[in-house]
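forwarding from the other thread:

> can someone predict this with adenosine-5'-triphosphate?

sure thing
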Amino acid sequence: LIDCPLMALLEVRDVSVRFGGIVALDSVSFEVPEGAIVGLIGPNGAGKTTLFNTISGLYKVDSGDLIFRNKSLLGQASHRIAASGITRTFQNVELWPRMTVLENVLAGYHSRFQTDYFHFLRAGLRLPGTRRLERDAKVKALAVMRYLDLEGLADQPARGHPFGILKKIELARALVSEPSLLLLDEPAGGLTHEEVDRLAEQLRRLHADFKVTLLVVEHHMNLVMKVSDRVVVLDFGRVIAAGTPREVQTNPRVIEAYLGTQQNGAA
Ligand code: ATP
């Protein structure tokens, strides 16, 4: 095999983000190769969620650039970024609790494909083309829900389900628009031991079946090391290591960052 470097789907170039006096990201640079699973780790407060919020257009960068498919994401609203093929899940799951599970999943489809003014006009006039689009959207949503074993919940309200199910609903919403890059914020957080044990396998399967590139923030070290092709380590807003799981695990700066956290935690 020829050693051919993969094309970068997302390039994080020298990105800095400050909140008042706090530097949340400090000249962060790394690449997410197309088709890879990249783990993003680091102690609490390292800047992982800030980076996700920046990529998905919720936070502005103070300097640097984010290049997705050779085009800058800067200045684009969140729905435009979703429409260009980047979707995400949230650390604490963000759903519309009173809407049904199916409606929540459909929202992910609409956020990508129906952001234009003319769609709203067509939908308002109930034109035939719109009805066909709605039907296609429903077929897609139900297919993703079947894949994640959620189909039986389609007409139930999203609220009141166990956390593992809520996370799956959110995942279905992020997948239904067939993103090219999926940002997963702590997929193992709040899950039972058994659910976490199954997660590595599920993520690998999903990555292959949906042909989606994954950027995964996760504290669960075994999971990150098992599932990732590459791992990027943040500490105090800076990249302190990047490489294969093995390279990162044996990197003295990474060991020090994590031991420091444990000692601080014990103090
Ligand atoms: P955790 O693993 O605990 O979720 P993290 O690596 O995701 O942490 P961030 O939440 O990105 O870290 O926080 C990075 C730094 O930026 C922290 O010092 C945090 O307090 C600060 N920060 C994050 N969001 C905001 C905000 N909206 N306003 C002010 N400061 C913020």
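The first helix runs from residue 48 to 55. thats all i got for now
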